[in-house]
Amino acid sequence: MRCRRSGRRLPLVLATALTAILLTGCQTPDVTPSDAPSPDETPTPTASAEPSPTAQPVAGDLAIYSMLETGTELRLVRELHDVPEATPAAAVELMIAGPTDPDYLSPWNPATRVLGVTLDAGTVIVDLSDEARTANIGSAGAALMIEQLIWTVTSAVGDPAAPVLLTIGGVPAGELWGAVVWDTPQVRGDALVTRLLVQIDEPREGATSGSPVTVSGEAAVFEATLPWRVLDAAGTEVASGFAMTAEGQTFSPFSFTVDLPPGTYSVVITEDDPSDGEGRPPMSDSRTVTVG
After folding, report:
1. Ordered domains of the chain (ranges, CATH)
2. pLDDT at 33
3. Which of 205, 213, 220, 273 is nearest to 238 (CA)?
4. For labelling alongside 291, which of 7, 68, 72, 162 has CA 20 to 30 A away?
5. Could you tell me the CA-to-CA distances from 110 to 92, 98, 218 in Å, in that order?
6. DSSP 8-state symbol, 51
7. What sign results for the dihedral spanned by CA atoms 243, 100, 62, 164?
8. pLDDT at residue 38 in the model
9. How far apart are CA 181 and CA 44, in angstroms?
């Protein structure tokens, strides 16, 4: 199976500001509900996507994408990581290292090294070592691996619309994992068919919190209604309710709070199921949090 999608280059006005972001090392985490590209940017020739040697490293959050098996398919999920140097290369390294949440997975070979992340005429070029060619995954998962890298690195550079090309040892990757071909720049796929439709961003997996616990993230759910529940360490439901997203059927932010006594809990959000079980299984996401 050959998986090809047409990439597109950024307008000339977008390239310079994107390059300026990269050269200063100041990344914007991928937490906005619209995922809209940054405005008012201007052109530049080839430039590095990493901070210049004289730039001060900038700490911040990086949105790192992994995968989740929903029961019927694989979908992209994300975790926010607070890092001392929020660079595109750091984002790709974290993606390759794998997720924190034990429910998530990443098929990238952890021995893969990031050789560079650069910007060339609006295209983000990610150069990896030869270990990147090794992955034990089927064609659907291989296509999602492409999305995983694209979503991670474009989040790190602060431009969700940027096309991305993977090179291995400086050469376009071409055929990968026995299932797909990546030889031209590619852009993000449709979020509604690529991402898990419910996503917790905060609290982060394994976090410690006071009470009340604030839970926030994004979801694209029916009539903007998001059921949630909290389970204790024994799996007993101790709280439940509904949160509302800003807009239905498209990725929009949500937030709710819940009072909990000290202990360790699993916070679970789930799609509302208007079909009463006649359609596909509702998608869900969870986070483990300890209340001190």
Report:
1. 12-194 (no CATH), 198-291 (2.60.40.650)
2. 34
3. 213
4. 68
5. 11, 8, 28
6. P
7. negative
8. 35
9. 29
**Strand extents, DSSP E, the chain:** 47-48, 60-69, 74-83, 114-120, 123-128, 164-168, 171-172, 174-176, 180-182, 198-202, 207-209, 213-219, 225-232, 237-244, 252-258, 263-270, 284-291
- At residue 276, the pLDDT reads 74
For residue 240, the cross-strand partners are: 229
List, for the chain, all residue ranges whose pLDDT scores fall below the cut of 50.
1-55
Q: Is the peptide bond between 203 and the residue preceding it cis, with omega within 30 degrees of 0?
A: yes
Residues shown for the chain: 292
Beta strand 198-202 with 123-128 is unpaired
Distance of CA 262 to the CA centre of its chain: 31
